[in-house]
Amino acid sequence: MKTNYSLELININKSFDNSKVVENLNLSIPPGKVTCLLGPSGCGKSTTLRIAAGLEQQDYGKVKINGNLISEPNVCHLPPEKRNIGFMFQDFALFPHLNVKKNIEFGFTNNRYKQYDHFSSDELLKKVGLDGFQKKYPHTLSGGEQQRIALARAISGMPMLMLMDEPFSGLDKRLRDEIRDETIEMLRDQGVAVLIVTHEPEEAMKMADNIALMKNGKIIQQGAPYNIYNKPLNSSVAAFFSDINILNSIVKDGRTDTPFGPFITPGFKEGSYVEIIIRPQHLKIDFDRSGKGPNATVQDGVPARGKVCISRFIGKESIIELKMEKDGSKLKASIPGVFLPDPETPLWLSMRRDRCFVFLKNI
């Protein structure tokens, strides 16, 4: 019986020169959904994508498409051109001897429909913002323009599965957002399963139905963007998605001490070293100890005083770094708009305890 997944990677392992690059990786992608393989450079994302494409073969594990086994060492390995997969990689791989129109139309030969009646090459060029480029050749185009042509060619065949390696990285922000949204919408409308590699958390949050976060060749957490952001498994996951403040302490009598007073830590053994994680936007700045600042809440708890080290405006918000009087630790707080207090200005901070994460510290 076939599964309801367009792509399944089952217990995938891959090494190069005795160095393990992908380890015990499991990932399933349903039709019409976008999964982002997210992680820092060198974590194994692109290797995983190449294994799914058939450009690399795993040392161990299985690759299935639509429930059919297409690759397993010593059993079978279907070549890339027979997998009904669309590719979009960083090097573009455009044909230099073909003009833009013919580069795109090459993808029609892999069209999964008997009659291609969804988008012509002209329509695809309009969708990627390059109408009028039909007769140009790849060497006359900028890097961003070549990237958009490669994208149009990849989606021209309307594959059942699309694999994309940082497909929007060469575009400026305004164009990247526009083309990314249009591309993802088009692929979803056609029921295409999409696996995208990116190292940018913000981009993954914007376009993914599911995020698989990789580190050192392993998927360390996966889930919907909201869940993975709000329920990180450890401090490194939390730190990958945003700036964080870390308060280090030791559990005593079921709680731990912080500059903001005692913090209850149920479930941790006596004497455990723990990290309390709080994002800058969840530290509230007050003008005095009464907690009556412009953004204080009843959940903020005991205020703690610090002095401003530096403040800077970064567009939509201001970041203020303070040195806490109690223990000399440095914390960052962010507030919307412009707020630029002078260095050494004393301010009171309150911590949103309902927005904190507590993790066992690795020592």
Features:
363 residues, alpha+beta, Rossmann fold, OB fold (Dihydrolipoamide Acetyltransferase, E2P), five-stranded antiparallel beta sheet, 21 strands
Task: Tell me briefly what this model is.
With 363 residues, the chain is α+β, with helices and mostly antiparallel strands. The protein has 2 domains: 7-239, 3-Layer(aba) Sandwich (Rossmann fold); 243-360, Nucleic acid-binding proteins (OB fold (Dihydrolipoamide Acetyltransferase, E2P), Beta Barrel).
The CATH topology of the largest domain: Rossmann fold
Percentage of residues in strands: 25-35%
CATH top level label of the largest domain: Alpha Beta
**In whole angstroms, how far apart are the ends?**
47 Å
Helix content percent band: 10-25%
The ordered H/E elements are: EEEHEEEEHHHEHEHEEHHEEEEEEEEEE
Rg calculated over all Cα atoms: 25 Å
Description:
This protein is α+β, with helices and mostly antiparallel strands and 363 residues long. The protein folds into 2 domains: 7-239, 3-Layer(aba) Sandwich (Rossmann fold); 243-360, Nucleic acid-binding proteins (OB fold (Dihydrolipoamide Acetyltransferase, E2P)), CATH 2.40.50. The protein contains 8 helices and 21 strands. It has helices at residues 45-53, 100-106, 121-127, 143-156, 173-189, 201-207, 225-230, 235-241, and strands at 7-16, 19-29, 34-38, 60-65, 68-72, 76-77, 85-88, 161-165, 193-198, 210-215, 218-223, 245-250, 255-258, 261-264, 273-278, 283-286, 304-313, 317-324, 330-336, 346-351, 357-360. Strands 7-8-9-3-10-11 form a 6-stranded mixed sheet, with helices on both faces. It has a 5-stranded antiparallel sheet with strand order 2-1-4-5-6, with helices on one face. Strands 16-20-17-18-19 form a 5-stranded antiparallel sheet, with no helix packed on it. The longest helix has 17 residues, at 173-189. The chain is globular. Residues 112-117 and 291-298 have low confidence and may be disordered.
